[in-house]
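Deviations from the work plan: none for this task. Representative record:
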Amino acid sequence: MEQIPLEHILILSAVLFSLGILAVITKRHAVVVLMGIELIFNAANLNLVAFSRHDSSLLQGQLFSLFVIIVVAAEAAVALAIVLRVYQHFKTAYLNQIVGDEHKS
Amino acid sequence: MALLAFVLTLMLMLLLVIVVVYAERKVAAFMQDRLGPTEAGPEGTLQPMLDVLKLLQKEDIIPTAADKKLFAIAPILIFAAVFAGFAVVPLSPTLVPAGIGIGVFYLLAIISLDVIGLLMAGWGSNNKYAMLGAMRSVAQIVSYEIPAGLAILAVVMVCQSLDFQEISYQQGVLMNQFLGLERESNWLFGIEALGINTTYIGGVTTWNIFRVPIMFVAFIIYFIASLAECNRAPFDIPEAESELVAGFHVEYSGFRFAVFFLAEYAMMVLVCLVAVILFLGSWNTALPNLGPLRLADWTTGTIGSWTAILWGGFWLISKTLVLLFVQLWARWTYPRLRVDQLMYLCWKVLTPIALGVVLLAGIWRLLM
Amino acid sequence: MLFYIFALLAILSAAYLVLTRNLLYAGFSLLVTLLSVAGIYVLLFADFVAVVQLMVYVGGVLVLILFGIMLSSRVHDKSVLSESVNKGWGISIALLLLVGLVYSIGQTSFNTLPWLQGNADDVLGLQKSTVQSIGIKLMTDFVLPFEVASLLLLIALMGAAYIATDKPKV
Amino acid sequence: MEVVKYKHGFWDVVKSLVSGARLTWQHLLSAKNRRRPSHVAAEDYFKQPDGMATLKYPYEAIPVPDNGRYRLHNEIEDCIVCDLCAKICPVNCITIESVKATEDIGVTSDGTKKRLYAPVFDIDMAKCCYCGLCTTVCPTDCLTMTPVYDFSEVNIKNMIYHFSDLSPEQAQEKQLLFEKQQEEMAAAKAAALAARKKA
């Protein structure tokens, strides 16, 4: 198996990262924003694993990406619980439609 | 080589599925004092093939209100998930389609793709029964992955490996022929202090449920959880015919339904294969060496020759069929659980016991 | 070769995630992205991370996300279609970021970095998988983050359960 | 009302699971026995408690009792076309048309004289309610219920059984004969009347 050039992996992760940013900025549904964040996490993980290949004795990159995945799991659980709560309260999951009671006309 | 493994695995899976579909009907019939299929072929043996043929001829109906893309992809995804699980199952001492070092973990992970397919099917059908069935099914599968995973974890702790093939080798007379296990030895009940070396006795004495008796509890937990994972009775509330008509595949017909059907039975076969490999000695013989009576050696064959492959396949598949029979037996004996009973069983009974088993397995490992 | 297929799949599905207005389709295209990233992990000799990715992301996070969508919308309903806003700003910021990142990646010569001199082929060594060394690392050098992570998961579990339960109205 | 008390202990659950499994296992084991297709009057009819209860129907069947009331059959040779069966039929499934015979057409097997032809004697078994009234009123016992019960048809028209032994042409011929005789008789009558008037 030929070696994958490091630059290509980094470019891939840069593309994923900017797509994630794009999703976070342009989308208005809370869950889609969450998906954008997942994309960003994945881009970061990809970098970590790619560099970890050059660190065979320590595997620090892989270990770090494992911790990232753990944090993502925790984050997703809490975030979705919040989204459901918000939906129950405001009857919408669109971030721009969430208005506090005092602002309602 | 990869293609050969693919075809071989597919053939094995289809063969076992056909046997199980036929057995299901016959066993159900016999337990209910009926005859079962008798007309197609001798004693109705061609019935499953003809069923599939019938399904393939039927009209492929896609409801107008359905989400057509998801509706079309879902069966393929579910089948792919189950079939990908078969890739790491060792069939005999030298025959394994894809022997990867973390096979057990991979299998647990790839099965979870199934869940996504179920959600797709349920949502894509745009039918409340399908949606309810999919939701129930996903909740059930995700919950029961925990006791099943803990039971498997107990095995992994005892065997110190995530490789199916290494776990298989540990449970038989061929143990020392595996790379990395040359110096290991099995002790009766896994307790070295007893001083009875069973490495060359083999047979039942080196199966995981026997060499570490606490594994028997883990096996029971895994078996119950696996019934729930493949939506089998008594845990078939996702498909409850009487209340949900059929759950997530209500809207499916023809070819797509055949794929669902196949995937469901393949899932049954897969969980039984995993149970056999992890707990019941994998492809190892059931007969121990008793003094000059070298029953284990005779029924194992020599590695590298056809005898080993044939004996290995024979033992693996016959043990799997026995477990599959138990699944059918349970289906036609026990009534369906309610949702609250299902969750009670998972979270308040199986999970705590499984946690205890993991702890005990860790302690047991220290004795080995 | 395999890497480029996976990379293309990942980028295409991520782009589809951004472009599509259907929330469900976005979720399922995220599935494809996650799967292809897992494939890339395998190619980078990180089999354990790849399977963890499958297990946690596909089996856990994605299911949660899909549940989140399905519990807050209906089929063929406006609520499953989400409109995009801030398109101009979003695209320009993302493009700027992308160009900047790609430019800096292009400018860096990774081959001369001293901490990248390790042999990239010899990750596995004699072992069949990285799981053994990861396990040893987790129990020695990384035992504190490991324990903290378990604590974090416990807190997240309790917090999520608390937030999501219906409180009795007093 | 007495409240059923369920036992909830762990071992009670295990015990009930095992007893259930044993029950189905015993049924599975007894599946080597099969019910024989014995007659209802046979000695062992009620003494076959276990084993598979299904019969492979087209190949084996429980014999019909002697008094079984199934498909109707009319022995047209013995029928005197009295129309009693059609009259008593509660669902009107019997259609009979009759033509008077011009000459003597024989006797039935019990000696009754036959005076009528039956160009149409149809029984629609799809309508029949199997009450058997027609067989009781039949004076010559030619209409009977047979033990044949398996006579399903693809086309419902085939459920109408035709018992007439006359072809349409023959029926027409008889009808013409009868009409001719009637005419002759009428002519003879008229002649006789005219002769009487003349006289």
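The mean pLDDT of chain C is 80.
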